[in-house]
Design goal:
Elements lengths: L1 H28 L3 H6 L4 H4 L3 E2 L2 E2 L3 H10 L1 H5 L5 H18 L6 H18 L4 H26 L1
Antiparallel strand pairs: 1-2
Helix pairs in contact: 1-4, 1-7, 1-8, 4-6, 6-7, 7-8
């Protein structure tokens, strides 16, 4: 069940972060922003990330570009906390992608980190992530209550 919450959180991250990353890259690199972003991709991802007028973003691509372009692009508006969140989310995204087990604490941490990063950039979908966090908490407490009821 936590896997579904994490999947939705990563979708929210992609939807909220994509426009921000593009805007900031354009501000620094102007018409060369796509080339600057693609320079962060491994050769096997460069072809899958192409779109006619830009890049097909996913959480992995966004977080990789933010990490690689931090000093030149993102550190001017975001702080050390957000840099740490980007690093943490990269690691959790990789665990999720490789279908490693994510417990409740991991899942809540991911949702909270996504919420904090989207809040820091003023993403319009930050409320959706807050709702997802509450739903994850409800699910966890319901499971605990059911387990306790069965034990009794």
């Amino acid at each position: 069940m936590s896997h579904q919450h994490v999947t939705r959180a990563l979708d929210y991250l992609t939807d909220g972060l994509g426009p921000y990353v593009e805007k900031e890259l354009r501000a620094v690199y102007k018409e060369k922003w796509v080339d600057a972003a693609r320079s962060s991709f491994r050769s096997d991802r460069k072809s899958t990330s192409q779109a006619p007028n830009g890049i097909v973003w996913d959480a992995h691509a966004l977080l990789t570009v933010m990490w690689d372009q931090w000093n030149g692009v993102f550190r001017h508006k975001l702080g050390f906390l957000e840099r740490s969140i980007v690093s943490e989310l990269r690691e959790f995204r990789n665990r999720w992608a490789h279908q490693m087990t994510l417990n409740f604490d991991d899942s809540f941490r991911i949702l909270d980190s996504v919420h904090r990063l989207l809040d820091a950039i003023g993403a319009p979908n930050v409320g959706d992530v807050a709702n997802e966090k509450r739903e994850l908490l409800r699910d966890e407490f319901s499971e605990e209550a059911n387990a306790e009821a069965q034990r009794i």
